[in-house]
Amino acid sequence: MAEAASGEKEVLFVDASHFIFTTLLGKVWCKVRCYMRSQAGRKRYNVLGALNSVTKKVTIYTNETTLNAKCFCEFMKILYVEYYGKPIALVLDNVRYQHCRLVERYAKVLGIELLFLPAYSPNLNLIERFWKYIKKKVLYSIFHKNFEVFKECIDNRIRQAHQIDKDKLNLLLTSNFQSFNKVNILPV
What we know:
By secondary structure, the chain is α/β, with parallel strands linked by helices. Helix content is 36%, strand content 19%.
């Protein structure tokens, strides 16, 4: 993180989010029952994102089928082109397709460093907070007329978030993680 702050390296927090084409309920308190229109079906929009730890800009790769190692390699190529000439480190969770030999070899060819987080620690991945924020802004209690409008709303909000919501994101996406030094562990 210190290298990212000084501009020596681009540190990107990477994760996927899967948006389901339906209306999700937000918090509603009312005296009269409220009905919301919703879409039927199971269409899914997969978004693989990389959050720049300094600028808070998010680069995305999307599809409507599935995410796999081949998709992740294509995404690394997009990141390589965007940050050409700068060292890149990707902070990743433990999704199986990111641990395969194909991804590791391709990252080595591109000169991208892969840093894997400990298992079951989503709170250490800054982009998890970003996905929660995007879902709140784009999905909850909002009806989208069709799947194309749904995808467009998600893409636009992701691309503009670092400009529109700069102050909120700077508070939300901090690298101040809680550490547990000298923790007493009690046997159970």
